[in-house]
Amino acid sequence: MADIQPGTGVDTTQTMNSSTGLTEEEATRYDRQMRLWGIEAQQRMRNATILVVRLRGVATEAIKNVVLAGIGKLIVMDGENVSEEDLGVGFFFRDGDVGLKRVDVAKSRIESLNPLVTVETITDTSFSEDAFESIVKRVDLVCVTDWNRDSLIRLNDICRKHQKPFYTGGTYGLVGYIFCDLLSHDYLAVDRSAPKDQPKSVKTTAIYPPLSSAIRHRWNALTKRQTKEINPALFFAVTAIWQFESQHSKLPDDLNQTDELESISNALISEAEVNKQVLTKAPRDLLESLSTTANHECSPVCAIVGGMLAQDILKALGGREPPIANFFVFDGNTGGGTVCRLNMP
């Protein structure tokens, strides 16, 4: 019910709406979250168009969260059909959807989450440079999930060409990751020089590198303690899977492939000059697990990684908190994750 100021007959809810540019329905639906991150951040989200490429488990969770938060428009791009495997992690799908286009069956269910968000779907995933560029030009942020390294680098470069922030995330069994390239990103950070009883924020700018540069990061500047805190084994396990997929055009799917995955991981660790007191070779048990599970999705891991991906996208759009900088890895075996700062000033 609208608030009426005593003795004036003025609808203060409507007054607020006219001053913020939000409709009464938007102000009501987003009232609680605007109290959390402010009207200005909500306006940025409401004006944003996000492109999500590939509708699997991580994307499903990320889409749910950004749509409920109140972005302006969502474009979902996926050309694949619903499989039986999708039913375990994709809550937009039902048994009867198997064999149908993912985006066709998901569109109405995404819209039902928040009727105020416009949803567009695209089934062409040929990814010709011209076609993808034409889509990128009309969005504010691109998020590509569960894709191979070489394609991610290519799509990231296209986004940089048009100055569009880029996110990617995905899972390999119990291991998940998120990477972001936000170009030159402004956000509000706590001013640590201010008195504790007078906290204030200052505008801060972070410079992000593209994925092609981030994965060539050298780790020799980190101390033993810093390296141990980051737990680099997970990062090199993910990049080893990327390298394996690039060489074989498929993910590892057999325990017998552990030796090759181990060889790739160890070469990457050596090349990156990781502190030898912390890590000289990738843990065998981790690689054995990935060799047999990388090709499968685990619902709880997808939910965690997808939720964090959405949260970070909203941070980037709102500009009120620092997003990840710039590679997050998650281990479902332990329930823990760490952020690796790769080739950032």
UniProtKB/TrEMBL annotation:
GO biological process, any: protein sumoylation
Biased composition (Polar residues): 10-22
Annotated THIF-type NAD/FAD binding fold domain residues: 30-339
Domain of life: Eukaryota
Gene Ontology molecular functions: SUMO activating enzyme activity
GO cellular component terms, semicolon-separated: cytoplasm; SUMO activating enzyme complex
Region (Disordered): 1-26
Pfam families in the cross-refs: ThiF
Protein name: THIF-type NAD/FAD binding fold domain-containing protein
